[in-house]
Specification:
about 200 residues; globular
Length: about 200
């Protein structure tokens, strides 16, 4: 079982990253986080990753670009064009690459069994990456005994593929830096909890 400080680290990091992968950057939930992560101030406080890895994340997150962050968010998470890295698990886990696929329904059933309410403010599939990180934060705080299963079965089987695509294809340094940071953070959780992710075929 993880120590209270380790669970607190998971909750804080998951909530921060989850908000940045879910809410628009100009939203009330995200504006202060964007300000923090657009500087190097957070690096010394982040509990995961080597100094070199975090330096690489900082370099991306602080890179100036011509595309406003709001436009990048629209392009990467909303559309109207095809998203370079769709943030929903069923796109990767279901043969038809659909939203609200079987893997989403399995997650929904798991949430019901654990008495977990959905956190989406829109009609968003529960397996949106940012929402799932915020759910991990909630579990770390309230149901830590369920956190390992949630990560192993529902998030880790596809998250590396999603984040790799984001790093490769996002074409915006802030979101590429976030994806790098999320990748090393999830890897650290996996090691801490001694998780072996469920083996799932990926279709994207």
């Amino acid at each position: 079982m993880l120590q209270p400080q380790q669970l607190q680290d998971i909750a804080i990091s998951a909530r921060s990253l989850g908000a940045l992968f879910y809410y628009p950057p100009e939203s009330e939930a995200c504006t202060p986080l964007v300000e923090i992560f657009s500087s190097s101030e957070w690096r010394s406080e982040w509990p995961y990753g080597s100094e070199q890895q975090l330096e690489q994340c900082v370099a991306l997150l602080t890179t100036a670009t011509n595309e406003p962050l709001e436009d990048a968010y629209q392009r990467l998470f909303i559309g109207p064009h095809a998203l370079p890295a769709p943030p929903w698990g069923s796109v990767y886990l279901d043969k038809e690459s659909v939203l609200f696929g079987d893997s989403t329904l399995a997650l929904r059933q798991w949430m019901r069994l654990h008495h977990i309410e959905g956190q989406s403010e829109q009609q968003e599939p529960e397996d949106q990456f940012g929402l799932m990180l915020m759910m991990a934060a909630w579990l770390a705080e309230t149901q830590p005994q369920a956190l390992g299963e949630f990560l192993s079965v529902h998030l880790l089987p596809w998250s590396s593929r999603y984040l790799t695509l984001m790093i490769q294809d996002a074409q915006h340094p802030f979101y590429q830096g976030l994806a790098e940071l999320a990748l090393l953070t999830l890897s650290a959780w996996q090691q801490q909890l001694a998780i072996v992710p469920a083996v799932s075929e990926l279709y994207r």
